[in-house]
Design a protein that fits this description.
The complex is a heterodimer of chains A (about 325) and B (about 280).
Chain A: E1 20-22, H1 23-37, E2 41-45, H2 49-52, H3 55-60, E3 65-67, H4 72-84, E4 88-94, H5 95-100, H6 103-111, E5 118-122, H7 140-145, E6 151-153, H8 158-171, E7 175-178, E8 183-185, E9 200-203, E10 208-212, H9 216-229, E11 234-238, E12 241-243, H10 247-257, E13 259-267, H11 272-283, E14 287-293, H12 303-309, H13 314-326
Parallel strand pairs in A: 2-3, 2-4, 4-5, 5-7, 6-7, 10-11, 10-13, 13-14
Antiparallel strand pairs in A: 1-8, 6-12, 9-11
Helix pairs in contact in A: 1-8, 4-6, 9-13, 10-11
Chain B: H1 2-25, H2 30-34, H3 37-47, E1 62-65, H4 71-81, H5 120-134, E2 140-145, H6 152-163, E3 169-175, E4 178-179, E5 182-183, H7 184-187, H8 193-199, E6 203-208, H9 212-221, E7 232-237, H10 260-272
Parallel strand pairs in B: 1-2, 2-3, 3-7, 6-7
Antiparallel strand pairs in B: 4-5
Helix pairs in contact in B: 1-3, 1-4, 1-10, 3-4, 3-9, 5-6
Classes of the chains: A alpha/beta (about 325), B alpha/beta (about 280).
Chain lengths: ~325, ~280
Amino acid sequence: MSAERTGEAAASGPALPRPMVAARDAFGQALVDLGAADPRVVVLDADLATSTKVSMFAAAYPDRFFEVGIAEQNMTSIAAGLATMGFVPFTSTFACFASKRATDQIRIGIAQPRLGVVITGAYSGLLAGKTGKTHQSVQDIAILRSMPEMTVIVPGDAVEVRAAVFAAAEYGAPIYLRLTRDPSPVVFGDDYDFRIGVAVTVREGADVTVMTTGLMLPRALEAADTLAAEGIQAHVLHVPTVKPLDVKAVVEAAERTGLVVTAEEHNVLGGLGGAVAEVLGEHRPTLMRRVGIRDTFGESAPNDQLLQKYGLTAHDVAQACRELTATRR
Amino acid sequence: MGSDVSHDEVARRLRRRTIDMLWRAQAGHPGGSLSAAEILTVLYFGAMRIDPTRPDWADRDRFVLSKGHAAPIYYATLAERGYFSPELLTTYDELDSMLQAHPFVGLPGIDTCSGSLGQGLSVGIGMALGARLKGSEARVFVLLGDGELQEGQVWEAAMAASSFGLDSLTAIVDANRLQLYGTVESIVSLEPLPDKWRAFGWNVLEVDGHDCAALAAALCAAAAPEITGRPTVIIAHTTKGKGVSFMENSVEWHSAAVTDELRERALAELVSGAAS
């Protein structure tokens, strides 16, 4: 449980082109490999298998794949029943539906009896394949973070997705695993040691701390490169487990620079920014900026335009860091 | 059958224990507990393949109380069957008790939480799918209220269960015709209920839900070879508050506290079996 572990090789080196891999592809392959290793693993789908890529598991293990049709509530409660029989169910649908249509089924069937079900939320954030505000998910972290007994994991790249899938199957308690649709930069090496509940330092710096979750990680690293050229050294702490929060790592990373920017592709209410503010408010009051969606729904548009309009680019992270460091001058 | 006499006596005992629990807690749901007495009796003292000394036995039959507010008589049944000491029933609804107002895992014999209506049939599907995947003979029984059938998820589950061909799954509807605010018929009608289940691909049986022999026969018929590939629903026609004259068919006794005087009256009736 330390913030000292550095997940990225050449942490402070110059920007390198990173290979791009879609989290959903990594997820689909990880499920297939997990399914080979662990016969307890079953997958439930609500008619989105080709989008979420659980179709790969369905092809490999048809007897352990349950297609329930367009019925997220039923799917979630069926998963609870399978968990009582000793299976490790992964439910699969979009994040917006998993976190809202089936909230009560998660609460009663999974969280209260503390069953080892992995609720996966695909297409999270704004980049939901030009489907707009009905299919974008800006609340799911907040909803599931407020659910007692729930662990919330938001991987930052394909390597972390794969590691989280394997770790989740062994966890034995409710997990919400937040996934994304489109290719994003691979940040971590294959030797990355992911652990549930542990935040990782991916870049050392003394001037301002950026805490990321999900795909804001590569955007924050890009921002850190830009800032370094301006003489601002950003410290980047990646927080894949938003709940339970790695309190020690968060407090230490805040103390290190005295300034904190949180970055998440989610509402600034109730997500990583909220979680960090709650902890720092009690342990180590720190001036903060929260980069995220400003309590609004999204819209359908190309990815780059969405990220720009809703303030989720590397530029937005860098600008928040500049604002904070300027308070010192 | 001689065993039916003893079933009737077990059901009366469950009712007495239920009245006592509700009187002690000054809370709970008498009506929907009392209507389910014979259903639970026949399940736990006949139909279900269970072993109270081994509540975690892998191949045991599963039971889901989807109408979780009938928890008092469910607890009484489990205690009567030997899952835990009847003395524990006195802790119903108390702080730190395992006997919560609605069923909670951890109490021997209970596999799932319930109480938010409409979810139990789906949980039962998961259990039945799990049993099939393991090659287990375990049957799964889910007890629903009739008012509960107004929840849309029940019908998602009904579609899925027949689609999955789950003949090991049996739903029992405690059709006592009342819900909290009035009659089911006057609030949102379910009729024609048997036709609805048939249209969803289920084998449908209707019985008098207070006739133990009829219930036992229906539960046996649900496992008959000729209905292979289809789940069965038993619509058990019951009387809400059954066995206590002043509670029978009374909306007021869906949820109400039992006073000292009414407890005495109720127990007197249940000793003699006057109202049954």
